[in-house]
Amino acid sequence: MDTMQRQYLKTRQVARLLGVSLNTVYRWLKKEKISEPLRDPENNYRLWTAEDIDRIRQELTPEEV
Q: Are 15 and 4 in contact, with CB atoms under 8 Å apart?
């Protein structure tokens, strides 16, 4: 996977964009309220995209986001 062609966000950035804490994003992932993003094969970090943010906003109710 060539991660240099797309711009990816860190989980902390995703939390900030959604207006929630980092722990909330991790909790949503653990409870499978949101889908896991791609992972970097070299370090296993989550690779979030703008499309992931849009999908999360659609999957969760306004009260959750």
A: no
Burial of 60 (0-12, 13-18, 19+ CB in 10 A): middle
Helices (H), the chain: 11-18, 22-30, 50-59
Q: Write down the pTM of the prediction.
A: 0.82
Task: Report the distance separating Cα 35 and Cα 30, nearest Å.
Answer: 10
Say how far residue 22 (Cα) sits from the centre of its chain: 10
Tell me the per-residue pLDDT of 38-65, one tens digit each, with 9 for 90 and over. Answer: 999 999 999 999 999 999 999 887 666 6
